[in-house]
Amino acid sequence: MGKPFDLTPRDVAPVHTRLRRIQPPFPHPEAVALIRRLYAAEPVSMQGQPPVVWDRAEGFQVHDPWGNTWLDWSSGVLVANAGHSHPAIKAAIHAQADRDLLHNYCFPSQERLELVELLRSIAPEGLDKVFLLTTGSETTECALKLSRAHGMQVGGRRKSVVVSFGNAFHGRTLGAQLIGGIPALKEWILHLDPGIVQVPFPDGYRVTDTSFDSFLYGLSALGVGPEDVAGVIVETYQGVGPDFLPVEYAQRLRNWCAEQQVVLTFDEVQAGFGRCGRRWGFELYGVVPDLICCGKGISSSLPLGAVIGREVVMDLFPAGSMTSTHTGNPVCCAAAVANIKALEGGLIDNARRMGEVLAPRIRAIGEAHPERIGVAKSVGLVGGLQCVHPGTTDPDPDTAHAVIERCLEQGLLFFGAVGVGGACVKICPPLCITREGIEEGCDVLAATVAEVTA
Ligand SMILES: Cc1ncc(COP(=O)(O)O)c(C=O)c1O
Questions:
Q1: Residue ranges matching CATH 3.40.640.10 in the chain
Q2: Between 352 and 420, whose confidence is greater?
Q3: CA–CA separation, 70 and 130 (whole Å)
Q4: Which of these, 453, 441, 442, lies nearest to 20 by C-alpha position?
Q5: In angstroms, what is the span from residue 268 Cα to ligand 1's centroid?
Q6: Domain spanning 109-328: which CATH class is it, in words?
Q7: Which of 90, 117, 134, 255 is deepest in the core (most CB within 10 A)?
Q8: pTM above threshold 0.85
Q9: pLDDT at position 2 over 80
């Protein structure tokens, strides 16, 4: 776990702008009392976030009950793409609850139909089937299962290897962790699946060979040939950076998978629904995967996941054998439909425009502190500052933590540091953010990085 945040109420400088309001002491003593009660009742694993008690959240602001307001650069955890409490999403949830249908398992419903048809209409051509789930981890588990089942169907038991990438994150359930590429998260599993392997992710920073040949070398070093591979799963960008694939790499990977009858999955749980300033993050590469894993921003609110894919892969399991209790919950479906319409109705365009304001400002923060910020970049409305020990590429989690904690005291909200060594300050405001929200956040962040690294 990352370093805990300081729960001592302290006399921080008051902040009062149109977008932010912080009144000392911070954290408020009543917030600390509430948090300590949570600590008593929940596992330690739940203690990683800043001591902000969320009372209300609207648009790109989060309010606590004691009059403090944060400019939100977390979107929760890249969920509230349409903005918090979007009026159309709220109305859809209310209307659905008022219709007296809160659950219907896998029985057919109008709400599920509307959502799967909408998702199909916004997916690239050829990705015609949609399977609704609840969490992102469920979708990556499902992609693992479908890829392997497809491989074994076309190539026998031998064609069962699923390839993922170093440093990958696909969720915290067993299969999702097996395809993850962070060894520390897998220690508890003990008996790893020999049919799941990782190759280096070509981030261009810690892994300098970014050619597609490195993928092929990586496989042959593991003793894996194309005839063994059932699937490749890759995050559209690795959340830990964010780190993107080189375009040529992505295109050659796409072609290689097609030639070798390998199912290519893009995990769009973070990258989808406008986060990269495009509907789908993989549009950046000019490729279309066979399966798309969706979560987070699909509803901007209630829990929902989806796998969208080619019929030949999606239809591998017979009726009743690939389902889930909360598949297509009608309230979640109603929220997702309203959300997608809001995103498609202008918020994705806003993300692209605001992304153009954000990118040079984030780059400038990196350029001002080259010894301490190893990578500083953003695409659309996802970015990150990777803090390093002076003059090295070694992660510096203390600096990342200090930046987040100081920003918090000034009304700029991030979630706890993520990524390699827990050293990345992740930047991901809701897609409804304004130019003022971007500029003001960048001013606070730039001054804070200067202060913390001085
Ligand atoms: C790329 C990616 N895939 C999968 C997941 C897992 O999603 P969930 O936490 O909803 O299970 C996450 C969550 O952070 C993610 O970032």
A1: 109-328
A2: 352
A3: 37
A4: 441
A5: 9
A6: alpha beta
A7: 134
A8: yes
A9: no
Centroid of ligand 1 to alpha carbon of 43 (angstroms): 20
pLDDT at 21 over 60: yes
**Cβ pair 232, 154 in contact under 8 A:** no
- What percent of the chain stands above pLDDT 70? 100
The angle subtended at Cα 338 by Cα 309 and Cα 326, nearest 5°, is 55
Place of tokens 């365009």: 349
How far apart, in whole angstroms, are the C-alpha atoms of residue 9 and residue 15? 16
> Helix or strand or coil: residue 221?
helix
Nearest alpha carbon, ligand 1 atom 14? 171
The average pLDDT across 424-435 equals 98
Can you tell me which atom of ligand 1 is nearest the CA of 303?
A: 10
Rg (CA), the chain: 22
**Residue 354 beta carbon below 6 angstroms from any ligand 1 atom:** no
Helix/strand/coil for 373: strand
- Looking at ligand 1, which atom is closest to the CA of residue 138? 11
CATH class of 15-85+346-453: alpha beta
Q: What is the DSSP string of 132-186?
A: EESSHHHHHHHHHHHHHHHHHHHH-TTS-EEEEETT----SSHHHHHT---HHHH
Structure tokens at 34: 């509430």
Say how far residue 278 (Cα) sits from the centre of its chain: 15
Q: Edge-to-edge strands of the sheet including 196-199?
A: 129-133, 305-309, 291-294, 263-267, 229-235, 161-165, 196-199
Q: How far apart are CA 235 and CA 243, in angstroms?
A: 9
Q: Where in the chain is the domain with CATH 3.90.1150.10?
A: 15-85+346-453
CA-to-CA distance for 310 and 266, rounded, in angstroms? 13
